[in-house]
Amino acid sequence: MSLTNTSKAIELGEPEKEELKFGFIKLTDMAPIAIAYENGYFEDEGLYVTIEAQANWKVLLNGVIDGSLDGAHMLAGQPIAATMGYGTKAHIITPFSMDLNGNGITVSNAVWQKMKPNIPKMADGRPVHPIKSDSLKPVIEQLNDEGKSFKMGMVFPVSTHNYELRYWLAAGGIHPGYYAPHKGDTSGQIDADALLSVTPPPQMPSTMEAGTIHGYCVGEPWNQQAVFKNIGVPVVTDYEIWKNNPEKVFGITAEFAEKYPNTTIRLTRALIRAAKWLDDNNNANRPAAVKILSQSNYVGADYDVIANSMTGTFEYEKGDKRPVPDFNVFFRYNATYPYYSDAIWYLTQMRRWGQISEDKSDQWYRELAAKVYRPDIYELAAKSLIADELIPASQFPNFATETGFKQPQQHFIDDIIYDGSKPNAYLEKFAIGLKKGEKL
Amino acid sequence: MLSTLKKVLGRSAKAMLLPLFGITVFLLLWSISAQNINTSLGVFPGPNAVVKQFSVLINEHINEREKAEAFYQRQEKRNAAKLKKNPDYVVKARAYTGKETFLDQILTSLFTVVSGFLLAAIIAIPLGIWMGLSKRLNNAINPLVQVFKPVSPLAWLPLVTMVVSALYVSDDPMMSKSFLTSMITVSLCSLWPMVINTSIGVSSIDSDLVNVSKVLRLPAFTHIQKIVLPAAIPMIFTGMRLSFGVAWMVLIAAEMLAQNPGLGKFVWDEFQNGSSDSLARIMAAVIVIGFIGFLLDRAMLQLQRKVSWDKASV
């Protein structure tokens, strides 16, 4: 599907399917979908889109698979795991990566009080960020001595949050537990120091308040909600765990993309335009976006709660508000381009924690990533936007030379460098995690 | 003349006074206790906050209607442009794609509950009559009814959802899947009280009446029409009223769990929003749900009065 002639305007056909229904979870990173609707970008493409909040990630995934949803805001791991056959098997693809960063890890006030003395202070008395999980380790050990287990929530077994939380915990020497699907163990708590379990995002604060979990990893606004409600303290953002990490994607079935190619390109166009609008002029449109997101049919939380993170700041402890200009990135740094190396990172973490129970070759990682991440569709959409003079070519990656692999990335909290072209070598670098040849 | 007026006034005052008293005390207690319940979403909403949310909800409805109007105009324009470019283009009018307002959700729920209930009645009443008439059939089916009756409606929901998804496949569906799952779940749960009450009502008809029918050698259908139905109607209606109440409760729960459109979804969405207005909006929905449940029951009662020949029995 490669395009050789870029100078000529691409004539886009009419959409084959005009009435579409998209699902989402109440999180600020669903913004591109809401904006594409509210700003009329979907309608510009001749698409009549209905947007519907879903109860949890499982319901959303099933909706896309059984066709009651045409597409959805998805966890990056969902299309990858589904295509691989972990959990529910279905071939889901993504032509559009929705954002970078946007998550945080929050612990309850009680845990925070015990963690705080272990954290170095700055001159003004505030804790030094990023906070590493080694300050949490003694708290867990103390709990274990009392015969209690330390529990944390994440949103789905193959969620970004699960891997981020595990990454952060493991970087500080806390074992988050292995999965062993070949033995039927999908709880992910083998050898665990911290027990991780699934809680739907909007229920995180109330579950922690009820004492069922000691902390959680979730997207916004549910970390800031804990601060506003005074029930917990976000200790670290995913931006600090891995600077500019890929987050949600927009997922559709491969069947949909094949059956409705024009519709697929058109919806991708609308989403790219929305993402660009969100980041335009140095986030100038963010307050307007927050206003839309705070409507009850989208995220629905109070304006102030959503604005806290969406407008480039993040409030850690109550009153400790710090600038994190890239907390939510929707378009900058080629955020919308579906990089194979992003997919491969998720696959490495699935292998690291045993969701992929056996060794796979580098080639296997590459092939699976190419099955799910579809920069070819993105490219068609982007080129037609360039041809329509809606977005200049300079705002996109250089398609002639783009390989789909980012340069080796640093800026991880444990200073390990990630090279997407060598997943097996990357896995060897971790102190905690499955190694070559290891099978539980 | 004056004295009768006074009497009527006095009587209605008495009839009004106690309920009014009850409501006032309730509002007072609610108001006071609400102020003392601090949730993480703020203070529990009192009557004032709820009344305010009612007007917000109505305003939202009006705004959404305006947006819908604009949507239709844009659509018309777009269709006209398409038609100009391609005369063979088949113009298709699409329904508004925006959000469902509170009022829309009420209508959706009402429509679903009535459809589900009617579907159940169509199955349950003939089945109940047949079971009442035939001892053998009764013996055969009764154990099943007894086992299924206590099943929580929500246990059916996952099964219904999966079956509907598997069987109801169409590119241009007449009804949405979510409507079908809600409706069938409602039907499954409102079947049993109707079946049981109808069969008991039919089997316990006065033996004199049955004997008369036997003497007259009434054909089976006439026997049902002239003897069975009139005699069993009070019991059938009791079953229907029970069922309708169950149906309404089940529907809201099913909508909450499955996120199917309706009042239940409204409540769940608000709970998930975690906005500072959420609790007041949920409370508003709770009041509406209760009030509609009450009205539905009244409506059934009126219907029963109309249909039943023995006016004294209801």
Can you tell me about this structure?
The complex is a heterodimer of chains A (440) and B (314). In chain A, the strands form four sheets. Chain A has a five-stranded mixed β-sheet, sandwiched between helices. In chain A, strands 9-6-10-5-11 form a five-stranded mixed β-sheet, sandwiched between helices. Chain A has 440 residues and is of the alpha/beta class. In chain A, helix 12 packs across helix 17, helix 13 packs antiparallel against helix 14 and helix 15 packs across helix 16. Helices cover 37% and strands 16% of the residues of chain A. With 314 residues, chain B is an all-alpha fold. Chain B contains ten helices and two strands, in the order H-E-E-H-H-H-H-H-H-H-H-H. In chain B, a hairpin with a 2-residue loop joins strand 1 and strand 2. In chain B, helix 2 crosses helix 10 and helix 8 runs parallel beside helix 9. Classes of the chains: A alpha/beta (440), B mainly alpha (314). Chains A and B meet through strand 2, helix 8 and helix 9 of A and helix 2 and helix 9 of B.
What's this, in brief?
The complex is a heterodimer of chains A (440) and B (314). With 440 residues, chain A is of the alpha/beta class.
Produce the secondary structure layout.
The complex is a heterodimer of chains A (440) and B (314).
Chain A: E1 19-24, H1 31-38, H2 41-44, E2 48-53, H3 57-66, E3 71-74, H4 77-84, E4 92-97, E5 103-108, H5 109-115, H6 137-145, E6 150-154, H7 160-171, E7 178-180, E8 185-190, E9 194-198, H8 204-209, E10 215-219, H9 222-229, E11 232-237, H10 238-241, E12 249-253, H11 254-259, H12 261-283, H13 286-293, H14 303-310, E13 313-315, E14 321-323, H15 340-352, H16 362-372, H17 375-387, H18 423-427
Parallel strand pairs in A: 1-2, 1-3, 6-9, 6-10
Antiparallel strand pairs in A: 3-12, 4-12, 5-10, 5-11, 7-8, 13-14
Chain B: H1 2-35, E1 38-39, E2 42-43, H2 47-85, H3 102-133, H4 135-148, H5 153-167, H6 177-203, H7 207-215, H8 220-258, H9 263-273, H10 278-307
Antiparallel strand pairs in B: 1-2
Helix pairs in contact in B: 2-10, 3-4, 3-6, 3-8, 3-9, 4-6, 5-6, 6-8, 8-9, 8-10, 9-10
